[in-house]
Specification:
CATH class of one domain: Alpha Beta
Shape: globular
Number of strands: 28
Number of helices: 19
Strand content: 15-25%
Distance between the termini: 61 Å
Strand order of the largest sheet: 2-1-10-9-11-12-13-14-15
CATH superfamily of one domain: ANL, C-terminal domain
Helix content: 25-40%
Structural class: alpha/beta
Amino acid sequence: MVIDKAREVTGWARLVGRVARKTGALGELNPRGLGALVRSLARGQAGLSTVFRVVARSAPDRAAFLTGNRSRSYGEVDARIDRLATGLRRRGLGAGDAVALMLYNREEFFEVQGAMARLGGAAVSVSWRSTPDELGYLLAHSGARGIFYEAELHETVTRARAHAPKLSPEGLFPVGAELPGHPTYEALLASVPDADLEGSEATVVIYTSGTTGRPKGAVRKFGAGQSLGFAAFLDRVPFQHGDRHLCVCPLYHSTGFGFAGMALMLGGTLVLERDFHPERFLAAIEREKVTTTAVVPTMLHRLLALDPEVTRRHRTDSLRALVCGGAQLPGPLAVRTLDRFGPVLYNFYGSTETGIVTCASPDDLRASPGTIGRALHGVSVRLLDETGREVPRHSVGELYARSSMLVEGYHDDAKATQASLREGYFSVGDLAREDADGRYHIVGRRRDMVISGGVNVYPAEVERALDEHPEVLQAAVVGVPDPEWGERVRAFVVRRPEATVDALALRGWCRARLSGPKVPREWVFLDALPSNPTGKILKRELSTWDGPVEQT
């Protein structure tokens, strides 16, 4: 046991050293920055609060954020975090307290995260698209005592307060505009002098996207384990010190926040965009010479749907890493992206609960389009059947992962936490198989599997066949009740502009590629598939479709 532990420590030490050399992460660390880093690590802290403090001591003038024409340096941000934390402490917030963030992609999102870390509190990420009922549930469930929110969403917050007993009028902090009776964000900072807080343990609560049922709050603490998980990912993906990282995924979601945090960890500059627009995305890459960015597959669909003349107007050769995740990446989409942008696409698999589990390089995606790649260093993966036994290679099983990046559990939901765990391994219900080269492939979700005539039909396999059709832009497959077969396969298809392919033609296409039970017998053609803000298809909405259906 001691020997195994020593080998594990040695392996991590080698990996961290390799990543430090590869990324140049320690290149400008001076004695003041090193001292701040050592003090933070000694207290078990390794979150964004520590990142801003360390870079501010070593390179205070380095730009942390670019928002439109405004730039803010690490030194400024670090000082603002201290003042914000002091202001919140004066209002009675401290260790163990939580505040919610319902903000667009803006620098204040990171400043509040950092301030709550220095107070030993928790920051709860909330979608700015939340309805009053949804927000009320999240505020009440998380026990938030304050909320930082876009001023234009004040009515939503006001209506949600009826369901949030811990949220007082003094805990409302609008951002972006003045509201009568409430201090502006900048006034809150200006009301306190400069300070130099040592900080405490950072806790972030991220509510899952809730494609089924109520969202669950995944609790993540940023200690050494999280940093090692980031290092394992950086060993696979060419992020570097001083990168310019474009943020277009919403920061309240793990994909947007996680990769933004990784870029900041390397002393990078975040280019903040409120949301994703394909041509604006390309223009930002060219204008700011962006080197890294993170997207979800829906964004790639929209990028590649642009007229080629439009895409050719923008130079994107500064881009070194285009990281994709958050939802399943269809193989044909991966190939088209590589053809358009070159060998810069990296497909990762992970979740809010597990952190990053696997990563596929451009070479992996060429060799096996759509793969999620191999497990990262320090990550153990098991594919288990319904009885909890490991399945053989090439067989499908539920994917369980164990690593230093697992969340603490679900906030105030021990039952849901235990239901997702097996012997320290965590699952979010995805089904996968491992190929002969050790690459993993997601084939669907446990709850989405269709059983037709006793045959297991994995929607991802059918969707992959449809995605390969030259006139199909996007497809999703669900099972619907059938009196004879138990379930039958229904396909929802979005055609490319000016495409004329019909249900009979697609049925023939599928029959040439899939065995009988997998071929859809029902077809629905839509202009767009329903999805949540992070690009996951809302199959619960498709399962209850009551519109016209074509039979074949």
